Amino acid sequence: MKNIFKTKNLLVAAIIGLFALASCNSEDFLGTAPRLFRPIIQETSYGGTWIKLEWDKYSDAKSYQLQLSVDSFKTVFKDVTTEDVSYTFTELDYDTKYQVRIKSLGTDIASEFFVGKDVTTSDYPTKLITPTSSDVVDVAAKVSWTSSDLTYSKIDVFKNDTLVKSVPLTDTDNRLNYKIVSGLSPQKTYVMKIYSGSSYCGKKTYKTTTSENYGTNTVDLRSISDTEAYTKISQTFVDSICALYPSGVNVILNGGSVYKIETVQCSRSISFITGLSLSGKAIMAVNGNFGIASAAETPSVKFEKIFFTDGTVAGKYKTDANYGGTYLFNLNQSGAKAQEIGFNNCIIKYKRGIIRMQTTAQVATVNMTNCVMDSIGGYGVVNNANDASYVGSINIANSTIAHADKVLVCGKALGVNSVTMQNVTT
Q1: 192 and 45, same structural domain?
Q2: How far is CA 399 from CA 368, 371, 373, in A?
Q3: Would residue 377 count as lying in a domain?
Q4: Do 311 and 366 reside in the same domain of the chain?
Q5: What is d(CA 357, CA 402) in angstroms, rounded to the nearest whole number?
Q6: What is the mean pLDDT of the chain?
Q7: Residues 202 and 227 grouped into a single domain
Q8: Which domain CATH number covers 53?
Q9: Total domain count for the chain?
C-alpha cells in the first residue's frame, strides 16, 4: 500500500510541474495572432432603398470594411470603411437581392470576410392593381393601376428574370389607367414592372391561360401590330392561306383590332374568329364585301365574335337610305357555291344588306346565332331576289334585328327552301 501512494504522489508532482513550466513560458510559445477575429453581423434591417447592418465591437479592430454585391461578389457594388459598429447602405434599388460581407481591420492585420445572409430590399409601394382571372388570356394581360400623380412612361415585361420587351405608355394609357400588353405566350408567368421616366414604380405578376383549341389549320394574327392588321385581310392573303390549307383554315383575329375589308372572294373553307381577348371583338370595317369565287369547291365561310361595321369605322352610315351602301356578302360570281355561310356571336351594323344573292350562286345553309343586326338597308338580312340563285335553308336563332328596312327578300321563283327563326327579337 505504501508503494502505491508514493507512485501517485510522484505523478501529481510531475503534472503540476508541467503546468507551471507552460505558464511561465506562454509568451515565448504563442507569438502574435496572424489576423483578427471576423466580425459577425448581429442585426439586419432594410427598406425599399436601404439596408442597415449592425455588429459587435472587437478588440484590436480599428475599423471595418463592408462590401455589397448583386452577383455573389463577382463584382462589388459598394465598398465602404467605417469605425462604427453599424452602417446603412442607401440609394439601393427596390425589390433587389443583395449580398453583404464584412471584415475587421487592425493596424497592420485584418480578419477574413464574414458573409451575411442575402438581403432583399422592399418593393415599391406601387399603384399597380393585383390582377384577377379576368385580366389575363392566353397571349395578353391587362395591366391596371389606380389614379396617380405620376405619369408612367413604360412597362417592362420579364419572364424568368429576363427582359422580354418594353411597352411604351401613351397619354391615353395614363388617362385610362391601364394598358393591354399583348404578344405573350400561353401558360407562362410574367412580371410587369412599371416606370415613370427611368424611375421604377412597382411590379405585379401575371400568369397567362391556356389557348383555345382552333385545330391544326390555324393562322393566328394576334401578334401583329394594329397598323399591320388594318390591311392584312386582302385577297392575296386569303388566297395564300387557302392554298396552304386547302381543306380549310381558321384565322384568329385580335380583339379590338380593326381589319379593313375590301372585296375578298373565298375559294376554300375559311373561318374568322376573335381569339381570347381583353378588348372585345375584332372589328371588320367593310368597304367592299366578301364573296364566293366562281365555281369554288363549295366552301363554308364562318365568322365568330366579329364586329362588322361600315368601312369608315366612324359609327355613321354613308347615306340614310342604305346604311352604308355596301353588303357583307355579295355572291355575284357565276356558279359560286357555298355549303354554309355562318355567323356566331357577331354584331353587324350599317349595311345596305348582309347577304345578297346574284346570278347562279347557291348557298346550302345560312346560319345566324347569338347575333345583333342593326341599321340594315332595303336589301335586308338575306336577299335572294334573283330568280337564278338559291338558298337551301335560313336559320336565325337567339338574335336581334333592329332598324332593318327589310329582313328576308325572295324573288318570284322558289329561291329559298326553308326559313327557321327562333328566339329572335325584331
Answers
A1: no
A2: 8, 5, 8
A3: yes
A4: yes
A5: 22
A6: 88
A7: no
A8: 2.60.40.10
A9: 3
pTM of the model: 0.74
Contact at 8 Å (CB) between 282 and 322? no
**Rounded distance between C-alpha atoms, residue 409 and residue 425, angstroms:** 18
pLDDT of residue 320: 55
The whole domain housing 182 covers 133-207
- CA nearest to 89, candidates 49, 124, 116: 49
* 225 shares a domain with 141: no
C-alpha cell at 205: 405578376
Compare 99 and 215 and report the one with higher pLDDT: 99
Is there a single domain that holds both residue 393 and residue 412?
Answer: yes
